[in-house]
Design goal:
The chain is about 0% helix and about 60% strand. It contains one helix and 16 strands. The protein has one helix at about 50, and strands at about 5-10, 15, 20-25, 35-40, 45, 55, 60-65, 70-80, 85-90, 100-105, 115-120, 120-125, 125-130, 135-145, 150-160, 160-170.
C-alpha cells in the first residue's frame, strides 16, 4: 500500500467541530498542493494551494462551510482521485473550543507579531508565520481552557490597531 499524500492532524475523528472549521495537516514531500482537495462528504471544501497556509509541508486551513449540523466525513483527496485521512466529525454551530487558531495577514506595519486580547486583556498565544497564496500571515494558537464558560470578545491588535475582532464561545 502506498504512503498517503496528505495527512490530517486535526480535527481528530469523532470530535465536534464548529465554525470556522480549522484543519491542520501535512503534505508528503514533493506533493503539489494544487493536486489536493479537502472534502466534506462528497463536497469539495477547498483546494490546498488556493486556501491553505503553509510552513514547509505543514498546512493550516480555516473554512466556514455552510453545512447541516450532525455527522459528516472529512477527508482529503487527489483531484478526482484517491482519498486519504477519512474521519467522522460532528458539525455543531455551538461547539465550544478549548483551542483557538487565529490568522491575520502580515502587513508592512506589522514588523512584530500582533498581540491577542480576550475581553480587553492581553492573552498568551503562540505566534508563527505561514505563507499562502495571498502572501504572508501571522498565525496564533491560544489555549482557551482557562477561560470561564460563555461568550468572549477576541481581538488581534498590532501597533494599537484592531486587525481582527470576533466573538467566541467556550464551554
Amino acid at each position: 500500500m502506498s504512503e498517503a499524500l496528505v495527512t490530517i492532524d486535526s480535527p481528530a475523528g469523532g470530535t465536534s467541530v464548529g465554525n470556522p472549521l480549522t484543519i491542520t495537516g501535512t503534505l508528503r514531500d514533493g506533493v503539489d498542493p494544487a493536486s489536493i482537495e479537502v472534502m466534506l462528504d462528497r463536497t469539495t471544501l477547498a483546494n490546498l494551494r488556493d486556501a491553505a497556509l503553509f510552513d514547509g509541508n505543514t498546512f493550516l486551513l480555516q473554512l466556514a462551510p455552510r453545512v447541516s449540523e450532525g455527522a459528516h466525513i472529512l477527508w482529503a483527496r487527489e483531484r478526482y482521485g484517491r482519498g486519504f485521512a477519512r474521519r467522522d466529525v460532528y458539525v455543531s454551530q455551538h461547539a465550544s473550543q478549548s483551542e483557538r487558531i487565529v490568522t491575520v495577514p502580515a502587513a508592512w506595519h506589522t514588523l512584530f507579531a500582533p498581540k491577542l486580547r480576550i475581553d480587553g486583556h492581553a492573552f498568551p498565544a503562540r505566534w508563527k508565520r505561514m505563507r499562502g497564496k495571498s502572501g504572508l500571515h501571522y498565525v496564533a494558537s491560544a489555549d482557551l481552557s482557562a477561560l470561564a464558560a460563555g461568550m468572549h470578545q477576541l481581538e488581534v491588535v498590532s501597533a494599537g490597531r484592531v486587525m481582527r475582532a470576533e466573538t467566541l464561545q467556550t464551554a
